[in-house]
Amino acid sequence: MTKRSLRYALGISPHTGWAACVVAGGTLARPEIIANQVIRYATDAERFCYHAAAEMDLAAAEKWIAKVRRDAVANAQRLLEPLLAGADICAIVAKDRDPGTLEHILAAHPRIHTAEGCFHRDVLREACTIPVRLIPPNSLDPTQVGKLASPPWGQPQKIAALAAWAVLAEH
Question: pTM for the full model?
Answer without folding.
Answer: 0.93
